[in-house]
Design goal:
- It contains eleven helices and 16 strands.
- By secondary structure, the chain is an alpha/beta fold.
- Strands 3, 5, 6, 7, 8, 15 and 16 form a seven-stranded mixed beta sheet that branches. Strands 11-10-9-12-13-14 form a six-stranded parallel beta sheet, with helices on both faces.
- It is globular.
- Bound molecules: NADP nicotinamide-adenine-dinucleotide phosphate.
Length: 314
């Protein structure tokens, strides 16, 4: 079996358990592609899994390789693959749980059904920033909340990996966007397209936000609790961090949903079209070499990254 460079987790723990080392190169099975990874992006799920917080929900065989976001070039295709060929530039949201092989590596295997041609107008670093963030924002706003033109949406964590896509997708749909972030991100929120930026360090959002149709919640806790009263009757709070209280929703006469976002090649293809049309732009604040995955995790774990942190592999 051929080897590759990868960042592996042999035991759960802090960023120091991420080991940059040689690992066996995966081979594509039926319906799968082998992708030569050019870039992989970092998501909070990565450090949550690394730390062992998700052991009961995402059982992975040790050692495993993290990384749910990849952009790269097709190196080989398994049997039954019809949509892609060697040399295609693709991006994907590989199912790490299937093999324990994620994108923090020189090669990753992804299913044909979770892959699309990457946007042509951007490089691999920016394409790798898209899948988890944009797919999650899309599923939450459009599939779960049914956000429509002219509606008002409160987007928490608007400067983050998912929030920065949520803002742009909501604006593309024609919604009025209220977004929360700290002082350092207020100008950035305007640049992203937020109509009403709210500085959560200077004011309580629930004092100034009323009658929204949709709350998008990637924060949870106290932020979620204080969000109920900002909704109009019949509105909806969609959380991506945990199931919201049904009692609270009923008490406020609103609906709620929790979403664990799944990808899919057709949505990735649609997102690529939006990116190439200039409607949505992935925000990458930090690019690090694969060998510095530990530092990437330290930065992501602060909970204050702007846009995405990307590992450049090739
Ligand atoms: N269910 C799913 O399918 C799914 C998918 C993707 C992500 N998630 C989860 O969703 C969460 C967010 O993911 P992400 O990738 O967007 O994370 P992220 O990029 O690490 O989020 C960081 C952002 O959160 C903002 N923030 C922190 N505290 C805030 C507060 N009190 N109010 C408003 N904004 C605040 C920060 O802005 P400031 O620096 O300005 O504070 C920063 O821009 C994570 O817990 C992740 O695991 C779930």
């Amino acid at each position: 079996m051929e080897n590759m460079k990868a960042v592996r987790v042999h035991n759960y723990g802090g960023p120091e358990v991420l080991r940059f080392e040689d690992a066996p190169r995966p081979t594509p099975g039926s319906g799968e592609l082998l992708i030569r990874v050019h870039a992989a992006s970092v998501n909070p799920i990565d450090w949550k899994v690394r730390a062992g917080y998700m052991k009961d929900y995402i059982p992975l065989p040790l050692p495993f390789i993290l990384g749910w976001d990849v952009s790269g070039v097709v190196e080989a295709v398994g049997s039954g693959v019809t949509k892609f060929k060697n040399g295609d530039e693709v991006y994907a949201r590989p199912d790490v749980t299937a093999h324990g092989y994620g994108a923090y590596a020189e090669y990753v295997v992804a299913k044909e059904t979770e892959t699309a041609l990457k946007p042509k107008s951007i490089d691999h670093v920016h394409a790798a920033a898209i899948p988890v963030g944009a797919v999650t924002a899309w599923r939450a706003l459009f599939d779960a909340a049914g956000l429509r033109e002219g509606q008002k949406v409160l987007i928490h964590g608007a400067a983050g990996g998912v929030g920065s896509f949520a803002v742009q997708l909501a604006k593309w749909k024609g919604a009025h966007v209220i977004g929360t972030a700290s002082t350092r991100n207020q100008t950035f929120l305007r640049e992203l397209g937020v109509d009403e930026p709210i500085n959560y360090e200077k004011m309580r959002f629930e004092d100034v936000v009323h009658d929204v149709d949709v709350v998008f919640d990637p924060i949870g806790g106290d932020t979620q609790k204080r969000s109920w009263k900002t909704l109009k009757k019949g509105g909806i709070l969609v959380s991506i961090v945990g199931p919201p209280s049904e009692d609270e929703a009923a008490k406020h006469g609103v609906r709620s949903a929790f979403l664990s976002a799944q990808g899919g090649s057709s949505l990735l293809a649609e997102l690529a079209t939006l990116v190439d049309a200039g409607k949505v732009k992935p925000i990458v604040e930090t690019v690090l070499p694969l060998s510095e995955a530990r530092h990437a995790h330290e930065l992501n774990e602060t909970g204050h990254a702007r846009g995405k942190i990307v590992l450049k592999v090739a």
